[in-house]
Design goal:
Layout (H helix, E strand, L loop, with lengths): L19 H16 L33 E2 L7 E2 L5 E8 L6 E4 L4 H4 L1 E10 L7 E5 L6 E7 L2 E2 L7 E3 L6 E10 L3 E2 L2 E2 L2 E11 L5 E11 L8 E5 L10 E7 L3
Antiparallel strand pairs: 1-2, 3-16, 4-15, 5-10, 5-16, 6-9, 6-15, 7-8, 7-14, 10-13, 11-12, 13-14
Length: 247
């Protein structure tokens, strides 16, 4: 059985070199807990480690969706606030579909999403792909620059315009999803970039920068990626949605 060893604050002082004896405790202590060493912390109890006499880390701060980071410049205090983004859901299309949906969202709580997609089109026709917050096709507007040239505004949140037959398109989109900030109601903004190429890789058709807004009322609880032609999102298409890790 592994033996639990106490780690006093001086051993992990911010300016202290890590010693082999301390490293062994970090290695053995988790085993001591799981193997039932009576001197070890019981499973689920707080982890009694102080950073330079600052803030202890407790169990609920070690949530798998949170990343520890320094709290303040030059401080040894640590918190469970998130850093970066974490995956909400990944969708891999197994058969041709007209739309895919990310459901169970909470834009007001998550605040910011990042949506990434790779859309394969194996139709002989040329579909248009767009994003629909809460499945709504209303209250949307997009301004697009195609290969450096300003295009006509559209009344949707358009990802790809008239995709070529047997083409593959890729897009990424940053979404400011919170509706009310400091008692001010704001339209939700979308900032994106898209590219389109033939699936054979011999033709790059267009590179598109676009910005959009959704003026709909209410929390964003779902995001739908839609094709205006049935089955336009072909087998092999993939989509990933991320949210801020601290939300």
């Amino acid at each position: 059985m592994a033996v639990y060893g106490d780690i006093p604050n001086p051993e992990i002082d911010i300016d202290e070199a890590v010693k082999s004896s301390t490293a062994k405790k970090f290695r053995d202590n988790p085993l001591a807990v799981t193997q039932g060493d009576p001197t070890a912390l019981a499973a689920g109890e707080g982890v009694a480690i102080d950073f330079n006499g600052q803030t202890s880390i407790i169990t609920d701060e070690l949530d798998t969706d949170k990343i520890l980071r320094p709290d303040g410049v030059g401080q040894a205090e640590w918190s469970a606030s998130g850093l970066g983004m974490i995956l909400v859901e990944r969708i891999e299309v197994g058969a041709n579909v007209t739309s895919v949906t990310f459901a169970g969202l909470n834009g007001n709580a998550h605040e910011v999403y990042k949506l990434i997609g790779r859309i394969r089109n194996n139709l002989v026709s040329s579909p248009i792909f767009d994003i629909r917050p809460n499945g709504s096709a209303a209250s949307r507007a997009t301004r697009r620059i195609i290969d450096g040239v300003l295009a006509v505004n559209t009344i949707d949140i358009q990802i790809i315009d008239t995709a070529l037959p047997n083409s593959i398109s890729e897009f990424e989109c940053l979404i400011h999803a919170r509706e009310v900030v400091q008692a001010q109601t704001l339209s939700r903004l979308f900032l994106g970039k898209s590219i389109e190429a033939s699936n054979a890789g011999v033709l790059m058709r267009q590179v598109v920068d676009w910005g959009a807004q959704w003026l709909g009322v209410g929390n964003i609880t779902s995001l739908v990626i839609n094709s205006n032609i049935a089955g336009g999102i072909a087998q092999g298409s993939t989509f990933e949605l991320f949210k801020f890790a601290q939300s």
